[in-house]
């Protein structure tokens, strides 16, 4: 049994690396906050209650999906936004490719940042999950595990997750000895427990993790040998079930919880395959989780044939004719579709001009679904490569 | 090489602004090295912007300097820097006038005539440093290191620590700072044990009641406060300004309440009366977090009167009205508005503290915040965390330094006065003059201009004349440095490094990095580097106190602490406080850099670092008083007075207590002495008018008088430029047959000044006001000989608790000048 599984994994990795094309990852997704402010998105949209009220608060339980899902939302919304720009006498912002990547990364990242924990729920979890049997909190509890007073300086839930992960093997041994059941976490549990520990312990919590750097996480994914069992990015991941199955709508604590719950099975598997338990330090856990989270930023490959029909049916061809002759350039000649972000940037920047043409020509705004976007991108990329 | 400003601008293709000047017949001149002019003649070339921090006032605004081919040509606000968010005051916009000022000290100078004669000869840096270091070595060799003094200005952060380190290693306890904001924290020390100026959460308060705090025009950071003020309409904040002369802040308030000078405390207590009487105060806060509100019994069984009884017994609205001139109905209205609006915050400064009763008045004002439960709450009064900078180990003192540091500081009062401060310019002058307890042989002057700003100029001049060697580090020669023997000129702020951290009254922790946007134009040196050089020349433990070679390295060293803390964010990451709060609630921090070098580069690029997230504080951190609470009854003041009584003789003698209280100008007796109360000011009965000086934005402390554009804008609200004026209410003017623009004599018991009258309804009748900032007798061609200095005719009186000058305790008469 062991041999075929390992073979499948190796084949999977090999094919993944052969087919993979790396996702365009922002180095610091929070950088997009600057674009969000500078380009005056904040005048209409709030984040966490701070900003305009013309549009929705973008941090309120929004998850924008992959790059092209978000592109579809923005594109379809463009005429409405243009009307608001005119009403508010604002200039329609133009974006560079990097700015567009930063902005998209930022909006995508908002959900990852999670929600504040609930102190009261955290308190009850410590008892119901049996933590208090081994750990002492605020002078109460067992002495088998470390006194949780030690985590008082750490304000980020991920510090706790990292510590739990690192001492996972020892904890599992102890759980076996005491015949306790492995604590399974869900939803916001990690954030809630962390919030309670911060309040229950006496120190001021000043140590915070930085929201992860997905690019660094990509390196860690290799270094910590996650790649030995999990498919990362690229076409192989998309064609085979892998980490893409994770429900990213739950944000960072959701991903962390999934990892923790998976720990028992993972340890057994690693023992069998003689792989060392990966340990994390500093900001590594956040970086890795950010990378895993950003796997959802990548789109499935599109269908070029369908893309061509979108190009025609949505009226793009009316302006972008082959060999010129239309109002816009022949897209086959401009060779500027290396990445989806590139295409989105071009589309956004010419959306104002396009709206005028649509109105003056008595046409409808071409609404593009996520699938339309994917296929259109695949088609344009193929055409441009010729 | 001198060039007219208009020509300079023309070289870069612009003429706007040049036409504004000429009001006084003086054409502005820029003084630039010839090679820069030659470069400029080739026309506009490569443009670049460089971020730094403005140091023309204590406000600490982030600025961006526009450079054409490496030549600074204009300045604008750094829109990301959190203190000013792109805002600028006229002073900052004209910062180039300081850089290109033709009257700068361009090389070290040695006095060649009598002190104050203004005669100088150039000297090399090596000769000058040799003179100073040899004198320092001689003093040390004689075991008299304490006879060296350092009179600084308003330096904070690294520069203050740098000078302190030099003086401690050398062995002198005589490092002092003199500025108009000196000793501002005494009332907060007495009530809360806090030695920092608080920040007021103006943005989140619904009602702001200011007792004399002219925060839009003066104070520590007018641009920061203007930015906060700009939200008052969209946030429906209500502003009430209480002051004798309507300032710019008063003019922008929703309500101006005129009050008689010297009575701000009585008005605050009248308001407290209503808050208590109508139970509009925060009972829970008062019960759990204050001391001395109710009557109380001490551990010896002695009964004491509490704040509540004292206020209810003495400050009912009609009595407060008699003292202050504010109608009792108004007092009732103000109190009800304050008590029924939450959060509301109360500020005190300016006229409220510039009197002999200033400490008690500010205690009364700040007590309103305690009644409202405003301390360390959103929309209230905040005390800001220190930035997590890295610091050197304590200085290692050799035997000479140890002995010197244990000597009595020369400015420490040995008479019965100033119990809450270790420095008053008056004590300093008197003790240097009397060589008590020892002579002062060397004095370093760093920025500032004590002789122009203080009262009692004659004694200070004579004191300076007593000192063997005075060394000034200023970049321009002013009234005080005229008495120096050596000028070791510093760079202007656009040419130098500095760290500008935690500007007082700004509501978040921050560090601005001031860095040179241009190489020094003249043969000047950074004072920080000169001190390192002098320390090295003295040698031994003094030299060893400075392990790093330059001041720039010192800044880097400190900022490593900020980098390692992981707290806050580089200023221009486009983050606002609410966004940082958003991250904080979720356990994240924002600043993350691959290395210190990356962090440092970003700091320089963007201007600085900030952290609006305040640390959780325990009660003992907020209230550092003997009771661990807000003390309406100040046990700290009681202990200080007891010490003075003990010094005067038998500790429990009521005669000695009376003697001490009389010497401190305190007329109250019993427990009232230690409670916020109103102390009547002893005005001269034979003069009919209260004289008050006031401050204007373009030249708040007189230091900007050498910038021509600031002279041009000096009286922009009164339409008076390059000259002084006296403001007078039309009713009062009519009594003396004074018309608009009449020349008048303003005469006090100290002297008289001739100025033009400006009739104004924005001043209380029987009060006259003269702007401070002009009347220089030195300080370069643009400053000298314009206007008058009101401080020159103000009586030499002080708040004897805090040591602050009583600028509003003088009365005057006014007559038409022929």
Describe the structure in your own words.
- The complex is a heterodimer of chains A (386) and B (818).
- By secondary structure, chain A is mainly alpha-helical.
- Chain A has three domains: 29-109; 119-297, no CATH class; 304-385.
- Chain A has helices spanning 2-19, 32-38, 67-87, 97-109, 119-128, 131-134, 157-166, 168-178, 189-200, 214-223, 235-239, 251-261, 263-272, 284-294, 304-313, 316-319, 331-334, 340-349, 351-360, 370-385; strands at 46-47, 50-51, 136-137, 140-141.
- In chain A, β1 and β2 form a beta hairpin.
- Chain A is elongated.
- Residues 1-20 of chain A have low confidence and may be disordered.
- In chain B, β15 (296-297) and β16 (303-304) form a beta hairpin.
- Chain B folds into four domains: 2-99, Single Sheet (N-terminal domain of TfIIb); 109-183 and 390-554, Rossmann fold (3-Layer(aba) Sandwich), CATH 3.40.50; 186-384 and 624-674, Dimethylsulfoxide Reductase, domain 2; 689-816, Barwin-like endoglucanases, CATH 2.40.40.
- In chain B, α6 (157-170) packs parallel to α20 (527-538) and α10 (264-277) runs parallel beside α15.
- Chain B is α/β, with parallel strands linked by helices and 818 residues long.
- Classes of the chains: A mainly alpha (386), B alpha/beta (818).
- The A-B interface holds A 28, 30-31, 33-34, 36-38, 47-50, 59, 113-116, 155-158, 191, 194, 204-211, 213, 283 and B 565-567, 573-576, 578-579, 581-592, 615-616.
* Chain pair with largest interface: A-B, 33 and 23 residues
Structure classification of chain A? mainly alpha
CATH topology of the largest domain in chain B: Dimethylsulfoxide Reductase, domain 2
CATH superfamily of the largest domain in chain B: Dimethylsulfoxide Reductase, domain 2
β-strand amount of chain B: 15-25%
Oligomer: heterodimer
Helix content of chain B: 25-40%
Which ranges of chain B are low-confidence, i.e. pLDDT below 50, for 5 or more consecutive residues? Answer: 15-25
Distance between the termini of chain B: 44 Å
Main β-sheet of chain A, in a few words? 2 strands, antiparallel
Order of helices and strands of chain A: HHEEHHHHEEHHHHHHHHHHHHHH
Total domains of chain A? 3
**What structural category do the secondary elements of chain B indicate?**
alpha/beta
The number of helical elements of chain B comes to 29
Q: For the report, how would you describe the main beta sheet of chain B?
A: 7 strands, mixed
Mean pLDDT of chain B: 91
Number of strands of chain B: 32
Name of the level-1 CATH class of the largest domain in chain B:
Alpha Beta
Principal-axis shape of chain A equals elongated
Beta strand % of chain A: under 5%
From the spread of the alpha carbons, the general shape of chain B counts as globular
């Amino acid at each position: 049994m062991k041999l075929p599984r390992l073979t499948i994994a190796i084949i999977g990795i090999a094919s993944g690396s052969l087919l993979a094309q790396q996702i365009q990852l922002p180095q610091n997704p929070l950088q997009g906050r600057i674009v969000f402010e500078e380009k005056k998105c904040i005048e209409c949209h709030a984040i966490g209650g701070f900003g305009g009220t013309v549009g929705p608060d973008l941090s309120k339980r929004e998850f924008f999906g992959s790059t092209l899902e978000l592109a579809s939302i923005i594109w379809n919304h463009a005429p409405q936004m243009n009307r608001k720009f005119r009403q508010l006498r604002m200039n329609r912002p133009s974006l560079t490719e990097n700015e567009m990547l930063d902005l998209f990364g930022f909006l995508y990242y908002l959900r990852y940042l999670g929600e504040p924990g609930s102190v009261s729920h955290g308190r009850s979890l410590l008892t119901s999950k049996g933590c208090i049997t081994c750990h002492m909190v605020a002078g109460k509890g067992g002495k088998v595990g470390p006194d949780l007073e030690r985590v008082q300086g750490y304000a980020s839930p991920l510090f706790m997750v990292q510590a739990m992960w690192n001492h996972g093997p020892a904890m599992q041994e102890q759980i076996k000895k005491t015949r306790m059941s492995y604590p399974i976490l869900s939803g916001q549990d990690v954030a809630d427990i962390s919030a309670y520990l911060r309040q229950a312990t006496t120190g001021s919590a000043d140590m915070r993790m930085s929201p992860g750097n997905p690019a660094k996480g990509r390196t860690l994914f290799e270094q910590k040998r996650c790649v030995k069992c999990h498919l990362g990015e690229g076409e192989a991941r998309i064609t085979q079930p892998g980490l893409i199955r994770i429900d990213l709508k739950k944000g960072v604590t959701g991903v962390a919880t999934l990892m923790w719950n998976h720990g028992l099975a993972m340890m057994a598997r690693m023992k069998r395959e003689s792989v060392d338990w990966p340990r994390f330090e500093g900001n590594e856990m956040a970086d890795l989780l950010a990378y895993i989270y950003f796997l959802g930023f990548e789109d499935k490959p599109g269908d070029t044939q369908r893309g061509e029909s979108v190009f025609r049916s949505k009226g793009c061809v009316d302006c972008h004719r082959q060999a010129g002759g239309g109002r816009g350039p022949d897209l086959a000649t401009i060779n500027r579709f290396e990445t989806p972000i590139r295409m989105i940037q071009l589309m956004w920047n010419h959306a104002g001009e396009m709206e005028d043409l649509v109105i003056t020509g008595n046409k409808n705004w071409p609404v593009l679904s996520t699938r339309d976007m994917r296929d259109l991108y695949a088609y344009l990329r193929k055409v441009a490569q010729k | 090489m001198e060039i007219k400003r208009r020509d300079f601008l023309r070289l870069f293709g612009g003429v706007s602004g040049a036409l504004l000047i000429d009001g006084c017949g003086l054409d502005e001149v820029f003084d630039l090295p010839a090679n820069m002019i030659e470069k400029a003649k080739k026309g506009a070339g490569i443009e670049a912007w460089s971020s730094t921090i403005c140091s023309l006032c204590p406000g600490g605004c982030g600025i961006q300097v526009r450079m054409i081919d490496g030549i600074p040509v204009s300045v604008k606000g750094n829109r990301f820097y959190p203190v000013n968010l792109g805002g600028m005051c006229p002073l900052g916009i004209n910062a180039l006038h300081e850089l290109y000022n033709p009257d700068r000290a361009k090389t070290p100078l040695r006095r060649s005539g009598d002190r104050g004669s203004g005669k100088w000869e150039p000297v090399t840096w090596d000769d000058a440093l040799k003179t100073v270091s040899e004198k320092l070595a001689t003093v040390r060799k004689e075991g008299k290191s304490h006879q060296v003094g350092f009179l600084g200005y308003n330096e904070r952060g690294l520069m203050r620590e740098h000078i302190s380190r030099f003086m401690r290693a050398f062995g002198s306890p005589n490092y002092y700072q003199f500025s108009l904001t000196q000793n501002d924290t005494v009332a907060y020390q007495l009530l809360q044990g806090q030695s920092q100026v608080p920040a007021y959460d103006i943005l989140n308060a619904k009602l702001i009641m200011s007792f004399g705090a002219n925060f839009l025009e003066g104070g520590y950071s007018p641009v920061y406060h203007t930015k906060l003020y700009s939200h008052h309409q969209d946030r429906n904040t209500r502003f009430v300004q209480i002051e004798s002369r309507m300032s710019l802040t008063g003019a922008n308030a929703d309500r101006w309440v005129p009050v008689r000078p010297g009575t701000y405390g009585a008005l605050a207590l009248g308001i407290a009366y209503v808050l208590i009487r109508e139970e509009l105060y925060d009972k829970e806060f008062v019960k759990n977090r204050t001391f001395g509100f109710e009557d109380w019994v001490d551990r010896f069984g002695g009964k004491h009167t509490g704040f509540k009884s004292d206020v209810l017994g003495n400050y009912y609205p009609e009595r407060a009205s008699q003292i202050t001139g504010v109608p009792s109905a108004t007092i009732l209205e103000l109190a009800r508005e304050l008590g029924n609006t939450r959060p509301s915050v109360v500020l005190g400064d300016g006229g409220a503290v510039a009197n002999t009763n200033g400490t008690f008045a500010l205690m009364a004002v700040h007590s309103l915040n305690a009644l409202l439960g405003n301390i360390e709450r959103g929309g209230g009064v905040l005390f800001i965390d220190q930035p997590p900078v890295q610091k050197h180990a304590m200085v290692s003192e050799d035997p000479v330094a140890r002995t010197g540091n244990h000597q009595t500081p020369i400015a420490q009062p040995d008479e019965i006065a100033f119990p809450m401060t270790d420095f008053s310019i008056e004590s300093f002058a008197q003790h240097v003059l009397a060589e008590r307890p020892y002579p002062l042989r060397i004095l370093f002057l760093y920025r500032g201009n004590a002789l122009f700003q203080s009262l009692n100029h004659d004694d200070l001049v004579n004191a300076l004349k007593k000192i063997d060697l005075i060394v000034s580090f200023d970049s321009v020669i002013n009234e005080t440095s005229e008495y120096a023997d050596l000028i070791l000129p510093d760079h202007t702020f656009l040419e130098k490094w500095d760290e500008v951290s935690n500007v007082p009254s700004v509501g978040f922790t921050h560090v601005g990095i001031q860095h040179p946007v241009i190489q020094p134009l003249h043969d000047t040196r950074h004072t920080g580097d000169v001190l390192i050089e002098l320390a090295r020349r003295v040698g031994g433990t003094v030299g060893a106190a400075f392990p790093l070679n330059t001041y720039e390295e010192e800044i880097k060293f400190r900022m490593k602490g900020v980098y390692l803390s992981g707290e806050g964010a580089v200023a221009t990451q486009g983050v606002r406080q609410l966004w940082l709060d958003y991250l904080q609630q979720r356990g994240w921090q924002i600043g993350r850099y691959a290395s210190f070098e990356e962090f440092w580069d970003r700091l320089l690029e963007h201007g600085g670092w900030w952290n609006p997230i305040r640390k959780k504080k325990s009660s003992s951190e907020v209230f550092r008083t003997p009771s661990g609470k807000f003390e309406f009854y100040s046990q700290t003041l009681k202990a200080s007075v007891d010490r003075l009584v003990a010094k005067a003789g038998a500790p429990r003698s009521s005669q000695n207590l009376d003697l001490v209280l009389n010497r401190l100008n305190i007329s109250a007796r019993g427990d009232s002495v230690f409670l916020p109360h109103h102390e009547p000011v002893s005005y001269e009965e034979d003069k009919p008018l209260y004289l008050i000086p006031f401050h204007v934005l373009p030249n708040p402390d007189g230091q900007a008088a050498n910038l021509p554009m600031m002279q041009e804008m000096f009286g922009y609200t009164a339409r008076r430029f390059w000259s002084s004026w006296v403001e007078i209410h039309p009713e009062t003017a009519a009594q003396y047959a004074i018309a608009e623009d009449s020349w008048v004599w303003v005469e006090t018991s100290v002297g008289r000044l001739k100025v033009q009258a400006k009739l104004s309804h924005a001043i209380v009748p029987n009060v006259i006001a003269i702007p401070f900032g002009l009347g220089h007798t030195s300080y370069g061609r643009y400053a000298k000989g314009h206007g008058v200095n009101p401080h020159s005719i103000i009586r030499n009186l002080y708040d004897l608790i805090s040591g602050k000058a009583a600028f509003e305790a003088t009365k005057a008469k006014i007559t038409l000048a022929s």
